[in-house]
Amino acid sequence: MNTVNSLSPRTMEEFLAQLRDALRGSDPAMIQDALFDSEDYLRAAIADNAALCESEVMAKVLNDYGTPQEVAGNYRQTDATVQAAIQPAAKPRITANDRQPGWFRRLFNVLLDPHAYGSLFYMLLSVWTGVFYFAYVVTGISLSLGTIVLIFGIPLLILFLGSIRILALVEGRIVEALLGVRMPRRPALPKDPSRTGWIPRIKGFFTDPRTWSTMLYLLLMLPLGVIYFGVSICLLAMALSFLLTPIAALFGEFQIDGVVVNMSHIQILGTDLTTSGWVMLPIFVVLGVLCTLVLLHLARWVGKWHGALAKNLLVIRD
């Protein structure tokens, strides 16, 4: 059982402030989740013990829920498990006496990296999410500013800014699932623990830089999504065309909507496959494999870069 001393928090605001200090230096996404969960628990405890004063409730909470330092330690342990689940194991440091893996192995290791495939899927998906985010933000800004002089303009603007944070959580879940970057699972709380209640939180929508950085991120998703999709689909089409050429060349004539296609007389890159061009088929396979490797390495790099971008723009930081 914890011992309550003079330094123990006597109010919910003090508890959250001490918890924030105890978590300082940890992952910002984990800090955001811990603060939200703790405030939710404290508010429920205060509501369930309405007959007691807040200091008495906090003394009971310290015994049942733990001190801010103990809660911080529990969240650090849990977050270490989460990080191990969503990220690949850290590579051991190579010393001067260790043999470094050759370039051939480093080149082909990407074929076994699940995050490379997740990043590739994100690149293909981002153009659709980017269109939705861009249309939603532009429409929300236009409607909010266009109706701000009317009686329902202010509530509409507040609703729009609140929905931006919901979109940040949705995008964060996508980023964590596909890119392997730890993102928040709970909404952000105001940095000032004393700012509780609806009015301070609504005010926080306008004063919190994360609201505007999130909006910037959602707007950037359209051009980034177009670039991601264009580059990935081009490399994917090249890889598939090279890899499927030997298979297509094995077939004779067949018909597609009445058009006769003879795969034994096709030309690829100016090479006729009917004669000496058959010796080019292994080269096409090699080119297909190289395009696949380039695509996966590029996808892995884009996943790391975009994950860092999402972390900086969507997650609140001290």
TrEMBL record:
Highest taxon of the lineage: Bacteria
InterPro entries cross-referenced by the UniProt entry: Put_sensor_dom
Keywords, in A-Z order: Membrane, Transmembrane, Transmembrane helix
A Pfam family it matches: Sensor
Residues covered by the Putative sensor domain: 122-314
Key word Transmembrane present: yes
Transmembrane annotation, as ranges: 115-135, 141-164, 216-244, 279-299
Protein name: Sensor domain-containing protein
Biological source species: Aquilutibacter rugosus
